[in-house]
Design brief:
It comes from Brevundimonas subvibrioides. This is Transcriptional regulator. It contains five helices and two strands. By secondary structure, it is mostly helical. It has one domain: 434 Repressor (Amino-terminal Domain) (Orthogonal Bundle), CATH 1.10.260. Helix 2 crosses helix 3 and helix 2 crosses helix 4.
């Protein structure tokens, strides 16, 4: 078993909420590029960012992100 990696449902949940990357970014107080890099697995969000994204989407951090083996 290797080191766990971060899996993300951010894009699925964002699109289900009918939000663009730019709209979610505005709600969460970050740039659209930040949303893009998190959705593409380039950037692992900080705890603060993960919580802000969950709040902006009306969900939990656990619903947005998970560990993969």
């Amino acid at each position: 078993m290797g080191d766990p990696r971060l899996g993300s449902r951010l894009k699925d949940i964002r699109t289900a909420a009918g939000l663009t990357q730019a709209e979610l970014a505005e709600r969460a107080g970050v740039s659209r590029k930040t949303i893009n890099t998190v959705e593409n697995g380039v950037f692992v969000p900080s705890t603060l960012l993960a919580l802000a994204l969950a709040r902006a989407l009306g969900t939990t951090v656990e619903a947005l992100f998970y560990l993969t083996d």
